[in-house]
Amino acid sequence: xxxxxxxxxxxxxxxxxxxxxxxxxxxxxxxxxxxxxxxxxxxxxxxxxxxxxxxxxxxxxxxxxxxxxxxxxxxxxxxxxxxxxxxxxxxxxxxxxxxxxxxxxxxxxxxxxxxxxxxxxxxxxxxxxxxxxxxxxxxxxxxxxxxxxxxxxxxxxxxxxxxxxxxxxxxxxxxxxxxxxxxxxxxxxxxxxxxxxxxxxxxxxxxxxxxxxxxxxxxxxxxxxxxxxxxxxxxxx
Length: 237
Fold this sequence. Notes:
alpha+beta
């Protein structure tokens, strides 16, 4: 087991501690250090959360993120800063300073990458203080979830710029969805200490060994999600 994975495993256990003096100190320090906006949290009292991870994946008040409902529009699927917004050059995602990696590598699905050839991609960086639930950007039908094992590099912008193809090398989950305009993919890339993902349909995602694992929905019609639905939550690990 790599050092990063051992550290992540230790973080996973630490963030599930329910001993009040311990978890309260962890939550208080984190909220203060990263200046978390508690006024928008459904439960602003830090003592409400049974453990640190429950705080990290906290829900917001219903009106904290108004949904843009203009027909044909897309909403941001999550909080964060847009670090890239470009066109796919063939199957290549070209980022700052000319760094590039292939959509096939990112998605672990050459057929899906070919289908998306010539489309657009958007990269959003979630900082530690951000709301860590991810929603669909438009009314969509989820068809497949693919969990892809990988590295656990930090995803801070400086690290992403320094490590070639980092986003296609880290552990990640690929959500294949269909909307009125066609198929698209939503990719959640894990990081050091933040690599556990849980969905309302599958629970916590994991894979045995180094091979990608797909979770195809049992219904032939998949699941229809509106903009206010969240496909998944990043846990602190």
